[in-house]
Amino acid sequence: MAINNDASSPTEPSGSSTSSVLDTFHQLYLHHFYIPGTILVSIPFGGTGFGDWEEGMLISLSAKYKIQLIDGTLIEPTPNSPLYPHWQCCNNMVKAWIINSLSKDITKTILYYKIVREAWNNLVERYGFPNISQYYSLQQSISSTSQGLSDIATYYTKLKGFWDELSTISLGRPCTCRAMHEITKAHKLPVSIKTQ
User: Which InterPro entries does the entry mention (predicted)?
Assistant: First the structure.
């Protein structure tokens, strides 16, 4: 009988006989092509651009059914559980994927965490909360961006990237109706579009 638990808990299924074979859609199942050396994002995180890096990692981990190891929905089973060896392998695999997606200096700061969720939370705690200078730096980038010799699509793509990054930053006073954000975008766009 395969271990086939619900998605929210790594507890042992009812019944007295279980094997160490997992259903391929179980969060603790590791496909044979998953290797520790895999790099999940195109650019390793080196201290800046955490929001983009985090989003890329979350997408990749979700696609591999492993996001539960870092979001807290899949907890460590007891050492005597038949799921424990599977959890331990998955925990270490996800940790290896995260380490491979970091600069060497940042890797050193999470290398010795035993539980990948704790390592992930450490990264989020240190880099996930932007400061006011980052907010104003993005505002300045938006203000100083002009179309120049670029076509409108290239210009808009660059500007949209700044807007998207800015929208992820919270300074503690979010606008619930988003009106101010839309007004700011509307006023800044026409100023920098070149006339033909």
Answer: Copia-like_N
How confident is the model at residue 138, as a pLDDT? 82
Helix ranges, the chain (H): 50-63, 68-71, 84-100, 104-110, 116-127, 132-144, 152-167, 179-192
pLDDT tens readout for residues 148-189: 888 999 999 999 988 887 777 655 555 556 665 665 565 455
Distance CA 126, CA 109 (A): 11
Q: Could you tell me which of 124, 27, 22 has the C-alpha nearest to residue 74?
A: 27
At 22, which amino acid appears?
L
Q: Which residue has the tokens 């870092």?
A: 70
- Prediction pTM value: 0.62
102 CB-contact burial (10 Å; exposed 0-12 / middle 13-18 / buried 19+):
buried
